Amino acid sequence: MSYKTQFGEEAYPAASSLRMERMPHIWCPGCGIGSVTTSFTEAIKRSGIDEDKVAVISGIGCTGRVAGYVNYDSMHTTHGRAIPVATGLKLANPDMKVIVISGDGDLTGIGGCHFIHAARRNMDIVVVCVNNFTYGMTGGQVTPTTPGTAIASTTPYGNYEYPFSLPFLADACGATYVARWTSLHSRNVTQSIEEALKKKGFSFIEVITPCPTLYLRRNRLGDGVDALQYYQDNTILKHGADTRETAIDYQGKIIIGKFVDREKPTYLDAVNTHYANVIGDDYQLYGKTPPEKEAEKAAAEKKAAEKIIAAEKKAAIKDKATPKDKAAPKSKEIRGAGKVSAQEWVNKETE
After folding, report:
1. Residue 177 contacts residue 195 (beta carbons within 8 Å)
2. At what angle do helices 33-47 and 186-197 cross, to 10 degrees?
3. Are residues 102 and 223 in the same domain?
């Protein structure tokens, strides 16, 4: 019996945003990915974005399953390739609001270079990183974010590598929006995702979440409830914090908040500005939405009509100096305006 048949769609507030026929999900009890998914679907609703314009991209791993559970257009891509797939989708269809939801290993391990360059280019996408400090689906190996001394399957005597501070990495690479929360702070996660959805540029939100089955068990840190208590006791809210100070030590304090919120031309903005300056009026702007394209088309037609008016005035002046038996200039055919004079068409558009 399916979840939908047994309990009905109203049993879960986010049911309309999820593919309930795929429930129950694969996540372990105490895992924080479900909380992040709920916050994400709530943010979509609050933002007012057309859900037909939403695309969710995920990579491989426990968090990668989000793309298969949400009831939006989505793609479950190969390991580490969520961001380049999202980039390609955004460039092919700039009207889409593209969101990447994946884990710390997928995004900053095998996908690390893609993360760096998407932020550097300021691609207009939202990236939500569920950071549980481990490769949860593939055996609990150490990841680029695993704190020092923490035990993993590949570091049974404790981690000796230097971990990334993901907010610092995103900030240094040029992200326009950077925030960090934990799965305990679900309302803040929702608010940050909503803000990121309404912002242009590369937005990055890190959500620290528990992995009870591998990270917590191997390090003897209790269960999911114990992790939430740890978040409650050890998080420090510090909006605007210097991202160089956001490193996470093993079982140490966690600085949370919105760290970066700045304006900066997106990749497509930079493309259009550069080529418009180099090529001039012959360059056709890339990545315009249908309304923008229509406005651009109307402006081009008006400009063409104004040229015709100038030509007609010039011809009229010339006619005054020529015999009256010479034929007067004919009205011009303007696309979409019928057979009217250019001046009449411009006047009509101005009204």
Report:
1. yes
2. 50
3. yes
Instruction: Specify the amino acid at residue 307.
Output: K
331-339 long-range contacts (CB < 8 A, ≥24 apart) are 332/305, 332/308, 334/301, 334/304, 334/305, 334/308, 335/301, 336/301
Run of H or E residues at 196: helix 186-197
Residues 6+ positions from 196 with CB-CB distance below 8 Å: 126, 177, 179, 203, 205
Answer yes or no: pTM beyond 0.85: no
Total domains, the chain:
2
In a domain, 223, yes or no: yes
**Buried b or exposed e, range 76-100, using 16+ CB within 10 angstroms:** bbebbbbbbbbbebbbeebebbbbb
Structural element, H or E, at residue 43: helix 33-47
Where is the domain boundary, 269, 300, 321?
269
Question: Residue 12 above 80 pLDDT?
Answer: no
Q: What is the mean pLDDT of residues 313-324?
A: 71
Strand, helix or coil for residue 12:
coil
Strands of the sheet containing 126-131, edge to edge, are: 73-76, 54-58, 97-103, 126-131, 203-208, 177-182, 254-261, 235-237
Q: Are strands 254-261 and 177-182 parallel, antiparallel or unpaired?
A: antiparallel
The two structure tokens encoding residue 111: 């996908």
Crossing angle of helices 290-320/342-350, nearest 10°? 140
Give the closest residue to 271 by CA, choosing from 286, 259, 281: 286
Provide, for the chain, the percentages of residues in helix, strand and coil under a 3-state DSSP scheme, each rounded to the nearest 5: 45, 15, 40
Within a domain: residue 278? no
- Give me the pLDDT at residue 13, please: 76
Q: What CA–CA distance (Å, rounded) separates 208 from 224? A: 12
Contacts of 44 (CB under 8 A, 6+ apart): 17, 51, 54, 72, 197
Domain span at residue 185? 3-269
